[in-house]
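Entry 14. Structure prediction run on the chain below.
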Amino acid sequence: MVKIKFTEVIERELNGEPVEGIILGDPQGVPKRHARRAICHRVLTWEEARKYLEYEINPDDFGNPGVHPIWLWTPTRVIFVMCYDGAIRLDSVPRNPTDGNPHLVGFW
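Output returned:
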């Protein structure tokens, strides 16, 4: 079982892009110390949200996803959590209409 901080997973997906805003959804199997609902459902800065996402996850672990769902805006993309049987990945869609190759979300 390989554990990694959820913030590291997000920052890898960002690949250097700045965060313009992030919304945390209701925690899904996240330890109560990280599950502050008062910060969910509203736009936060990355600095505000990061401290709540600094917990270890196992992205390939089936069962309970153990993460906050997110919508994260960069200048070019909207990033979100995909979940298949509890295993999670981050995916993104273009922020604005653009040519591309859509794919089915939830399959990897």
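The beta strands are 4-5, 21-24, 56-57, 70-73, 77-84, 87-94.
Filed with the rest of this week's runs.
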